[in-house]
Amino acid sequence: MDRRQFLNTSSLATLGLNASPAPHPKGKSEHCIMIWLGGGMSQIDTFDPKIEGSSKKPFVTGSDYPSIETSVKGVKVCEHLPQLARRMEQVTAIRSCHHNLIDEHAIASNFVHTGRPTSGSTTYPSIGSIVAHQRGAANPSVPAYMLIGFPNVSRGPGFLGANHGNIYLTDMKTGPAGFTRPEHLNAERIASRKNLLDALKKDIPAKSPLADYQKAQTEALRLAGPGFMKNFNLDSEPADLRNKYRSEFGQRCLLARRLVQDGIRFIELSHNPGFLNGTGWDTHGKGQLKQHELIRDLDNGIATLMDDLKKKDLLDKTLIVIATEFGRPPEFDGNGGRGHQGSAFSLVLAGGGLKHRGAFGRTDELSKKVVENPVSIPDFHATIHTALGIDPAHELIDGSRPVPITDRGTPIASLF
């Protein structure tokens, strides 16, 4: 028993309380694919439909689309999610997510990625980096954490150090940034450059940030070989499967399945970096007019990914997460769009061996506030970690300071 456990046990014993911690559930998922919907997905127009309104003048408060029944009795989704509607017995839309942060994109995105508010003194690690730190890759020949999108601090390793950061790509054709070697570099020239770099490494102090960066760089050089890079050749997949995935987002989902199959533990991919509808999921003004295009694209990509993983016997081993920084209010603004809302929004889980129920939690009649089974962002993180077999109360170390993996988050017990 360490000093911390001894003090906790002694204090509880003095109070006459049972010192045995309550056992937490343990999931059986081996991988996680997190789909990031940057901008703020409108829950009332997707996974938490309410009375139908209209974004056309005269504006009517409510959902912008009709709702449809799903494979789970009593659970409805919007009409533009027909494929996921047929698969909702393998999905849980957590409709009662909330936070009280200012509804600003960067602050809210950081919170949903790290599970903690922005701090002036500490850079907290992203959920992807924590999973990479705790579980490592399922295959020692690949990285633990892959980002298909643009890197930033919120998606980074924070105080865990560069060795637990992500390998990222923004271009599907070239693969991870910096991994494609120029054609004029032959094996001899690469070896010469490596020898020069090795000479410079000798004076790097151990356990320094520069040493962490050196480890990450060494890992990157190893991964730039043909073994890992073969994953990015989507042409090796059957044409009919690639066609089922359809769009650029769909191809990203196909790549995510290939990366899971090769042993990568955590993959984050952005849904709409090209702003398909002009504004992405940040549906102010005219963005609302083409929001249905985003929803249909999401529907096809996720449904095809679920079927593909199932055929590979990977769906129960792979947790799919649909995440966004906040939701949208039921009212329409002067241009027919929607504002920002953190008081109630939906985040979604699929696969991963969970006991899915179609939906969890409940909001009021217009999806403005949570009225049943509230789920905080730390709770949401705790649920993901638990699904992956990670104790959400386990302590990481920032210098000499212990930092629990989640900020007092509690997993949703009924999903296990």
Note down, in words, how this protein is organized.
This protein is an alpha/beta fold. The protein folds into two domains: 24-179 and 230-415, Alkaline Phosphatase, subunit A (3-Layer(aba) Sandwich); 181-223. 29% of the residues lie in helices and 15% in strands. It has eleven helices and 15 strands. It has helices at residues 3-14, 82-85, 105-114, 127-135, 187-201, 209-223, 226-229, 239-245, 248-261, 291-311, 377-387, and strands at residues 31-36, 67-69, 76-78, 91-98, 145-148, 167-169, 266-270, 318-323, 345-351, 358-360, 362-363, 370-372, 375-376, 395-398, 401-404. A hairpin with a 6-residue loop joins strand 11 (362-363) and strand 12. Helix 9 packs parallel to helix 10 (291-311). The model is unreliable at 1-19 (pLDDT under 50).
The portion of residues assigned to helices is 25-40%
Mean pLDDT: 89
SSE succession: HEEEHEHHEEHHHHHEHEEEEEEHEE
Q: Superfamily at the CATH H level of the largest domain?
A: Alkaline Phosphatase, subunit A
Overall 3D geometry? globular
